[in-house]
């Protein structure tokens, strides 16, 4: 029994084992427990026939015979094609088992996680059946499954031990889990199975600091001048809100920098203001208490007062 694996939707060729059909050859392809005849070659009669309407038309318009070797190709495979195929050549029989593997994820998947959390890269396999599955990070194999040898291996000492004691393989689905993530784990992870590669683009976001609202005593404005600031941040946006409306915002690129955003309010302003720092998966919010922060003038003092600060973190 030969095992043949293919991704759902791909084409697969079942090899007859012949390099060339002779004039006297009779080749029959059968499928399933009932040995249903699905294709036949009678070279003597010069007849090449596919019976793709059998089994309720399961193989309709998806079977093709090679008139040189007698191999059978199945296009646009589905899980219903999984099973035992028998090729009979002049009364000699050979058996092949076709396993159509289901992958729920597309060829590229974007995954985001907060630094320090664990993340599982799941290829969506129902089961592992191919002989060799490899996980790559950059140019390095970091995990490998060898079904034939029943071996599940993580190579967590590569890249100067960056992943040491932080990789785990699922022996049922082939999923790779990375624990205690760091920003160094950010990048593309590639799963190679059969002739297909599934790429996971992993983004690791640092935990956000709470934005600080302070009085700007250097301003000559007659209003209350404020500034919201954060330090050592990247891939974030800092914004002032009045209620649910954005008043102003500033963003940081991939470099770790400090951000500050000014705001002027009247001393008797009754609106609700907040300063929000956010990245694609979380945010931190500080609410402004005008009565407390703007109550005293800046004359003769450089003291900054910060009160009524609350943080709100949400991950989705």
Explained architecture:
The protein has 316 residues and is mainly β. The protein folds into 3 domains: 100 residues, Immunoglobulin-like (Sandwich), CATH 2.60.40; 98 residues, Immunoglobulins (Immunoglobulin-like), CATH 2.60.40; 82 residues, Immunoglobulin-like (Sandwich). 4% of the residues lie in helices and 47% in strands. It is built from 3 helices and 25 strands. A hairpin with a 2-residue loop joins β17 and β18. The two termini are 47 Å apart.
CATH homology superfamily name of the largest domain: Immunoglobulins
Shape label: elongated
At CATH level 2, the architecture of the largest domain is Sandwich
* Poorly predicted tracts of residues: 300-316
Class by helix and strand content?
mainly beta
Number of strands: 25
Largest sheet: 6 strands, mixed
**Rg value:** 32 Å
> Strand-residue fraction?
over 45%
CATH topology of the largest domain: Immunoglobulin-like
Sum this structure up briefly.
This protein is mainly beta and 316 residues long. 4% of the residues lie in helices and 47% in strands. It contains 3 helices and 25 strands.
Blueprint (SSEs and pairs):
Layout: E1 2-7, E2 12-14, E3 26-31, E4 36-42, E5 47-50, H1 54-57, E6 63-65, E7 72-74, E8 83-89, E9 92-101, E10 108-114, E11 119-121, E12 132-137, E13 140-146, E14 151-154, H2 158-161, E15 167-169, E16 176-178, E17 187-193, E18 196-205, E19 212-215, E20 224-233, E21 237-242, E22 245-251, E23 257-265, E24 273-279, E25 282-287, H3 290-293
Parallel strand pairs: 1-9, 10-18
Antiparallel strand pairs: 2-7, 3-4, 3-8, 4-5, 6-7, 8-9, 11-16, 12-13, 12-17, 13-14, 15-16, 17-18, 19-20, 20-23, 21-22, 21-24, 24-25
